């Protein structure tokens, strides 16, 4: 069984889907790795670190020669056209974003697993790429905020007195938000957190932050957040507005599964923020939680700076790759034995994450969404 890893081709993508330690684990299962030269360079894993693997000179050679191809982002049409019919493709395939690409993968006769589709059950936690990369993004966005903030995060005492800590407000206390809270706390800021799921209060408080109460409970299906009604939005805006006006740093991470990010912070709220305040909108790529966010840009609105970073996890490519590599290995390795891969459609994690198989788009939700 040949496991293929090509260098990621998307602009700015520095991660890779295996790291040398995990390559050894695949070898332990009887699989051989075929790695494009330089695939790990951007994540600081030079070719020599991979040890005894076969190298290919191009991504095309990897895609043509592998039985299982691992990737971070979806491959280009050109690479899809090189895959062996019957091959298996595993990665973050962005199943909702490009119908043509999904159809091309299906037509090629490839069995593709999009790990964004994993059922969110306890057993799948160790494979959950969304969570691992959200944790990286949450950490990184607290640092981005600290870097742009014209104030110290921690309290500082010096010979002429003391300086108060910066006030940081984090909206959305999922995996990314909690990591942003933890990181801002570690740097010494005074932190507040908010989410529409009331159970997050305890999680926010356990990190030493204060929970902002708005009285809105929008726990939806499966315990995830649902969209707010117009009345709830109004109530949320009234109560949150005050906290937003008082903070030095606002980090927004709110998301609703399968939907555009909710707009929580209006233009008017931004205008009421302090001069010098910094907003980091982690939801920039999916539309933004803040009115006026531009994905991939830094924008000034009066005295407020709004940062809309994209592909944040890629800024920490060493650990982001390590985490991804383990997620992918935990997903596929139970089905590899003595150098052979046996797919098991009775397995709810495997069947749940399946995007294409046997020439068809298998995932019902994606098939409907793509029309
Ligand atoms: P996410 O990235 O989907 O969303 C981020 C947060 O935004 C969520 O906490 C959500 O409640 C919040 N949000 C949505 N609308 C909001 C609004 N209008 N105002 C304020 N906040 C709003 O979330 P996530 O990080 O994937 O985690 C969500 C939950 O799923 C957590 O409880 C997490 O522990 C759980 N989870 C379970 C598994 C698993 O069992 N395999 C894996 C990952 C996450």
From TrEMBL:
It is an enzyme of class 7 (translocase). Its EC number is 7.1.1.1. The keyword Transferase does not apply. One of its GO terms (biological process) is NADPH regeneration. Residues 4-137 form the Alanine dehydrogenase/pyridine nucleotide transhydrogenase N-terminal domain. One of its GO terms (cellular component) is plasma membrane. GO terms for molecular function: NADP binding; oxidoreductase activity; proton-translocating NAD(P)+ transhydrogenase activity. Keywords: NAD, NADP, Nucleotide-binding, Translocase. It catalyses: NAD(+) + NADPH + H(+)(in) = NADH + NADP(+) + H(+)(out). InterPro entries: Ala_DH/PNT_CS2, AlaDH/PNT_N, AlaDH/PNT_NAD(H)-bd, NAD(P)-bd_dom_sf. Residues 146-308 form the Alanine dehydrogenase/pyridine nucleotide transhydrogenase NAD(H)-binding domain. This is proton-translocating NAD(P)(+) transhydrogenase.
